[in-house]
Write a sequence for this structure.
């Protein structure tokens, strides 16, 4: 049952990501969207976009889903996810590495693992293989 | 329809998918990455099913509907209307070949992912939990993104000089 939910939830992620490509021509890579929103590139004068960048609207939707879920699941704190799987210093090191690595490697789980492999991009297949391996290495050693 | 409405809807669905699939929970991610679980039977294969679900939708729709439109822009095939629905062009990466920077960055990213069990999507979708540990992770992650951007700007300006 939980594996079926994982598959169906995954399909919903795929639908959201391909929808963004089909309608807007954009890759649903969360690290890229976040860094474009927070640290926008200086664009040439050809940029016709006005107002808040589309990236902020995507992030608004993503964060809203979490708030709705938190409200619906209410005070039943036993099924709240736990984020302190490791000590605070390790958690901060983990965050730094995730941010730095996704910036240097041009993508994260969503951009490479779903949208990139979804286009059968060689770069993304390799990147996903590498971060799965180092992720397993870190998890085996630390947990 | 406006591309910003599409972006909001896509973000909302993406977040719902992360939450329903269980991938927003670090324990599920670590349960997959920590292969020691194979020894005592506690290994959690969920992440593979999430990837399979997402890729089955993405690969099929991309190759059936999107790729012909991308191609029709480069060949003069006007039979298929080209371009995405709400934009004049597809924004796809220009770099095609793997390089050292890609492998180095992906390696670092994976280490952080395996340590904390959190990647950027789940970090954002979990902001609603108002959890302090998650907030710390988020701040560190944004700092990491910023350091990456600064160092690449610096290296880029060095290369141009």
């Amino acid at each position: 049952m939980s594996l079926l939910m994982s598959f169906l939830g995954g399909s919903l992620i795929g639908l959201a990501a391909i929808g963004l490509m089909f309608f807007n021509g954009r890759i649903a890579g969360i690290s890229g969207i976040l860094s474009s929103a927070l640290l926008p590139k200086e664009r040439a004068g050809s940029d016709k976009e006005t107002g808040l960048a589309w990236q902020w609207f995507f992030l608004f939707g993503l964060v809203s889903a979490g708030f709705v879920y938190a409200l619906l699941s209410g005070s039943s704190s036993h099924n709240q996810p736990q984020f302190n799987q490791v000590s605070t210093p390790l958690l901060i090191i983990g965050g730094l590495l995730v941010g730095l690595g996704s910036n240097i490697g041009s993508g994260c789980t969503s951009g490479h693992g779903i949208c990139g492999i979804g286009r059968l991009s060689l770069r993304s297949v390799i990147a996903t293989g590498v971060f799965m391996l180092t992720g397993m290495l870190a998890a085996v050693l630390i947990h | 329809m406006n591309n910003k409405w599409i972006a909001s809807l896509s973000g909302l669905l993406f977040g719902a998918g992360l939450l329903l699939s269980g991938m927003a929970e670090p324990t599920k991610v670590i349960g997959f990455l920590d292969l020691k679980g194979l020894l005592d039977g506690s290994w959690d294969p969920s992440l593979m099913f999430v990837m399979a679900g997402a890729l089955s939708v993405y690969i099929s729709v991309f190759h059936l509907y999107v790729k012909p439109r991308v191609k029709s822009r480069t060949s003069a095939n006007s039979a298929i209307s080209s371009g995405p629905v709400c934009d004049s062009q597809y924004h796809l990466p220009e770099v095609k070949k793997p390089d050292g920077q890609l492998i180095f960055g992906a390696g670092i990213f994976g280490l952080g992912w395996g340590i904390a069990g959190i990647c950027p999507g789940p970090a954002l979708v979990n902001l609603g939990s108002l959890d302090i540990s998650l907030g710390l992770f988020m701040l560190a992650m944004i700092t990491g993104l910023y350091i990456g951007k600064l160092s690449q700007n610096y290296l880029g300006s060095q290369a141009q000089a």
